[in-house]
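ARCHIVE CARD
Drawer: 12
Card no.: 0347
Subject: one protein chain, sequence and derived structure
Cross-reference: see card 0346
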Amino acid sequence: MTPSDVKATLSFSDGSPSMDLPIYKGSVGPDVIDIRKLYAQTGKFTYDPGFLSTASCQSAITYIDGDKGELLYRGYPIEQLAENCDFLETCYLLLNGELPNAAEKAKFVKTVNGHTMVNEQMQFFLRGFRRDAHPMAVLTGLVGGLSAFYHDSTDVQNPEHRAVAAIRLIAKMPTLVAMAYKYSIGQPYIYPRNELSYTSNFMRMMFGTPCEEYVPNEVLVRAMDRIFILHADHEQNASTSTVRLCGSSGTNPFAAIAAGVACLWGPAHGGANEACLNMLEDIQKMGGVAKVGKFIEQVKDKNSGVRLMGFGHRVYKNYDPRAKLMRETCHEVLAEMGLQNDPLFKLAMELEKIALEDDYFVSRKLYPNVDFYSGIVQRAIGIPVSLFTAIFALARTVGWIAQLNEMIGDPEYKIGRPRQLFVGATARNVTPIADRS
């Protein structure tokens, strides 16, 4: 960290001694005030629900400027990566800090491909779930269960173990997601084919059957690959912070990533694109495009309880940079599949038009976000709505691993221990049960 020439001074109106707090500068973005000695010197904590103003770590992986609508992986704009790289190149970048050259990429792809299969006993593990279980419930169990099968890569303090676990998780996640899907529809599992690209392999495992050879459609493969890239990492969000907090205890990488999967399941986080599609389907049941105006009125009414999903973002106060790329991909996929006249797509475009023109949404900067378009794309490809968040988890796995590795390698890292402002009862004595009124 680079110290700033400026210091912050904390003073108290009750005459308590003031305290100087060091300030550190990042390479870009806001400076941070170091409060690590605050409690020791003043006996006070800070109060920051949701950690909206608290930097929990220093990181060199992902940078977001919400006001500018900017997202950088290791300094590279997300737009350039999505247009010029594939997902495994992006994985290499997030893990190693630089994009690979041709030889490095070939070696990395070969290494990942060497770990795409999962232990056969995972099939029996799957059978313990009901077939109608939510895929995220299944995936949380499967990812956590990997630690029971791969004992040679569970020591998070061992760099070699972490490296092997990273490759295993990246390689096996598509296999696990596809297995969860096949199990839910009663079809046989499709084994990976390592001569295919990462994303082609995933789509073959998803949609192939033993009856006939599955031939991946390159437009759809590229669309899915772009979804993976756009969701690979997103700084210190809820699930990434969960992985870091869980990993700070020294637990194994598989358990830490399983914790991230569980956190991602929430509708306010990874479940947002699933919630968005459910919203569109609800409007369609109401009457479709003809009822969009009525739906918008309900959204504007604070007492209605109706929320507009897929618009706005907690971080981006401008247009989500991923949304523009996903919008282009959305139109490409729908054209390829001949779905331009699909009622749900027409409904989505009408909703998009209103949100971009209506002053209520424009003034609040409620622009369409990446979830709005990615859900439409996945539905067009044939992925069921319930599987959307599992796809998100597949893509985000590399980001979680990169963040976990960075934390373990940070000499300042400690087990996470947030503080609280206690507002409960003060100390009191227990009354015998016979005397309690």
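Annotation on reverse: The chain has a mean pLDDT of 92. The CA atoms of residues 207 and 382 lie 9 Å apart.
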